[in-house]
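Entry for the shared binder. Reason: the reviewer on the internal report wants the predicted structure included alongside the sequence.
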Amino acid sequence: MSTAALRIVSRSSPMALAQVERVRAELAVLHPGLRTEVVPVTTSGDRWMGDLARLGGKGAFTKEVDAALLAGEADLAVHCVKDIPADRPLPAGTVFAAFLKRDDIRDALIDPEGRTLGELPAGTRIGTSAVRRIAQLASSHPHLECVPMRGNANRRLEKLAAGDADALLLAQSGLERIGRTDVISETLSVEAMCPPIGAGILALQCREDDTDTIDAVTGLNDPTSWKEATAERMFLHVLQGHCNSPIAGYAHVEGSGELSLRARVFTPDGKTVLNAHEWAGPLDPATLGTSVAVALLRQGARDLIDGIAH
């Protein structure tokens, strides 16, 4: 690297900036002399509090970050993998240089009275706008009511305190990043609430011709995260799921090194649930992702996804 600072672009939310600080800290260990600076941008997804589908879906959280990277205003972008659209390729001219070691992939319940999900009475209003969570709650806890809730985690906690909802569902890893695990009343198992594709993984994205930056950050790559993210993103790519599709799943590398992928597709009302779970065996991660997607397509996932307005 040159003596110039490595410029890191990110969303400007407290959570995103906390993620950048993790990257800066890990880079400081890897390259003690490397200077870094943060280039925060506010994305259309952060500004817009309505239905994400009307902004074109998940790309609403990455478009401005990608633009800053491609324009040369920054050298490195930090993204949550779950926010990066997988139904289309990365912006031309950019590559993933590393996937960081994965954080907790589970969802957390925040109930001011400290109850578990199973203890919440009928009619309890759960604050969430995630179609994945809404479909799963409709399937497993139909007596609970979901109310729309957007904004960063701090903002949602404020809305909960203001009475906009009785309880919240948030990502466990996000609450850990902003130091608010004190509010968690229950961490839900992946069986109770299957996570989103890419949960808990931070991706580092560079311009593909910027070999200096790529060389500087590849040492942060976690091979397990790389395998899991590759399988999950290929799965979503083959399914061509859109932002209104209740799709959930996670790949996992066992202690033995074997990779598996479990995935589910739901109808928004939770009444239909398609399941698939496969082990990679000799398959590479991308082929495993393809195989699990094909297994769900055989069960009718295409009609189910295409039948959902977006």
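Summary line for the report: The longest helix spans residues 14-30.
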